[in-house]
Specification:
Number of strands: 17
Bound molecules: nickel (II) ion
CATH topology: Porin
CATH architecture: Beta Barrel
Helix content: 10-25%
Number of helices: 3
Shape: elongated
CATH class: Mainly Beta
Oligomer: single chain
Mean pLDDT: 92
Structural class: mainly beta
Amino acid sequence: MISRKLILAAAVAAASLSALPVHAEQGDWIFRAGAANVDPDTDSDEIDVAGLVTLDGVDVDDDTQLGLTVTYMLTDIFALELLAATPFEHDISVNGVGIEAGSTKHLPPTLTVLWYPFGAKDSKFQPYIGAGINYTYFWDEEVDSELEAALGVITEPVTGSTDPVPADLDLDDSWGFSARAGFDYWINDKWAVNAGVWWIDIDTEATIETELADVKFDVEIDPWVYMVGVAYKF
Ligand code: NI
């Protein structure tokens, strides 16, 4: 025979389950995963190649990777969010002359304070905005053979040869501010559909290193990062 206590316990459990809010609240952890596109809005200084020629600067193309965020709800309306991702890889081209300069990988971990204006309301639609700080780490910078060939032509007056000039590329790490907006649409008390955007101030000094000279120039990458995916809270 099923005891009354058991029925009561089941009823209480069912009631508490259905009473779970469909939005996040203080103490919740939210994991978000989705496709993250880093779309640079590049502004590059001109490149003075050892006084021989001045190039128009560089452009950086976009890349999409798996984006991951972890969020902790400090209160019902304020949260702390960390953005992580699988490494982004971007091709870099030289403006004006249409040659490939090279490529770089980077990771842009970003820590953001989020504000949920509807956070205290039991609403399925939960938008948020935020501000934070970004650290971007570049590695595996590579120089394209097209740039090495161009350097060979440019430096002929010095070297007496148009042979390609072997070069390395180095990009300094960047610290900068970020801005954030997005929303969760809660389907049930665990899962939500998520979409959001970051603007990140990423500025770097690029150095093209050759045996003849080092060429330095500043590049503002300042990307928009778009992410669409799902959120899970517990
Ligand atoms: Ni900038």
